[in-house]
Amino acid sequence: MKFESLLKQMKDRLRERFSNRIGIKWGLFSGFAAFAAIILVMLWVFQIMFLGSFYKFIKVSDIKNSAQTIERNINSDDLSTLIQNIARDNQICIIVSDEYGDLFYSEDALPNCVIHRLNGLQRAFIYEITRRNGGVYFEQFPEDNMRTVPNWDQQIPENPDSPESMIYTFITERENGKHLLVLLNSTISPVGSTVQTLRVQLTWITVIMLILAFFLALFLSRRISGPIIKINSSAKVLAQGNYDVQFAENGYREIAELGATLNYAAKELSKVETLRRDLIANVSHDLRTPLTMITGYAEVMRDLPGENTPENVQVIIDEANRLTTLVNDMLDLSKMQAGAQKLSPSFFDLTESVRDILGRYNKLTDYHISFTADRDVTVYADELKISQVVYNLVNNAITYTGEDKVVRLRQTEHDGKVRIEVRDTGEGIEQDKLKDIWERYYKVDKAHKRAQIGTGLGLSIVKTILDMHGGAYGVQSEQGVGSTFWFELDVQGDSVVEASKPLSNVSR
User: Is residue 489 situated within a structural domain?
Assistant: First the structure.
């Protein structure tokens, strides 16, 4: 009840925190709509308000760039052709004269050009005005005024619908030292009618764009947000402990990958939850059984005269040892998987270490345990941990071997690696269950005697130790024949073998 109350409080806090935030669907919709509105506003501003200014800027830039081109090529033999091309391409009138107003070049590309109405005296006057202005002169005036000479003192009436004329002049010097006056004349057409046309056109464009933007924003917001909303709903179900939930894997690539990742996470969480339940159940069973035995025999010895026998005491000792083994295995496995235990590697004789372990078994059991090896092999590993691997594999084989009580160990070498194989003659393991036997407390056959004898952690400890060493391991099994568990380690050189034997012997 306390956990459920805490979960409810967390949900209420999350709901209160995010209740005022806009949803992703309407967030995307408003974002797309705002973007379309900004584009339309920019079109109106630049096409209507600044069209005239931008047009004048372009025309002024054209006439000045043309003047610079002529000045750079003033000594060219093809100056006449250049002036013709510039006038034709830019719709500019061009005149080149001397300081006295005599013509050298003339090109008329505009109807009713202003500078072509000038006589020699007027051109000489403009030369003087240009010289007084530092060699460059520019003027812009309405064409209605029909002024033939700049800088007249008369007032020019303002007429926004009247074309404007631009006159740009400059003085340049040729290689022979002669000074020339270059006059350029261009016309700026009124843009009032153009602006009006654009205003009507943009009005229709705005209406159409707003309609299209609305439906496009609605479509994209639904397409993008739909899978995310579904994933969010499924995630809430997953958070409630329902690991069978399925996340949609459609939509854009990133969203589909997110759905696939969450499906994988839900699958793994389901496995973890199953293992957790099995762990609790098995630990409870494995702890309860020896405690019940100890309590029962102790009460019998207390209450019944004559039951205080060595046999009953031995039962209590055996169950206490079993309980101790279970707790130690759980602690060792937890420490290794948490990274709390570090390896202490050294060179040692693996073959001799296996012989010593099997020697202890042959003294304590009536099982027929054999070991074959071509030669002694040295490895670089944690001898205590590798010995624990051998112990657990042999214990597992003893638990599951057949009625003949035969367990065989074999050492082989290949490609610089030594392999230790432990084979039993039991019932074997189904192929679809082989990948699960390394999990803690996994039982192939829950009715098997391991449920009463072993801790169910042996193979998990083997897996963890060999993973820490980076060694390979596996199992081969055939039903009705038996199983063979194996692991591999890197073999060290022969010289190392001889040098490491005393170290191995000392450690034992």
Answer: yes
Using pLDDT thresholds of 50, 70 and 90, give the confidence band for residue 194: low
Identity of the amino acid at 169: T
The predicted-structure confidence for 481-506, as pLDDT tens digits, reads as follows 899 999 999 998 653 444 333 333 32
CB burial of 324-342 (b: ≥16 within 10 Å; e: otherwise) equals eebeebbebbeebbeeebe
Q: Is residue 6 part of a domain?
A: no
196 and 264 fall within a common domain: no
Mean pLDDT of 310-321: 79
Is the model more confident about 155 or about 73?
73
Together in a domain, 479 and 346: yes
pLDDT over 90 percentage in the chain: 18
3-state DSSP helix/strand/coil percent for the chain, to nearest 5?
Answer: 60, 15, 25
Comparing C-alpha atoms, which of 231, 220, 214, 508 is closest to residue 384? Answer: 508
The segment with the largest mean pLDDT, out of 39-43, 116-120, 421-425, is 421-425
Q: Is the pLDDT of residue 433 over 50?
A: yes
Total domain count for the chain? 4
User: Do 271 and 285 sit in the same domain of this protein?
Assistant: yes
CATH number of residue 277's parent domain: 1.10.287.130
Residue 94, number of CB atoms within 10 A of its CB: 27
Regarding whether 366 and 471 lie in a shared domain, the answer is yes
Beta strands (DSSP E) in 355-416 are 368-373, 378-381, 406-414
Q: Looking at residue 120, which CATH number applies to its domain? A: 3.30.450.20
Range of the domain at 102: 91-145+161-190
Half-sphere exposure of 359 (CA within 13 A, CB side): 6
Q: 425, 326, 309, 283: which is closest to 367 by C-alpha?
A: 425
pLDDT at 503: 32
d(CA 425, CA 405): 8
Query: Would you say residue 225 lies in a domain?
Result: yes
Q: Angle at Cα 443 formed by Cα 440 and Cα 445, nearest 5°?
A: 175
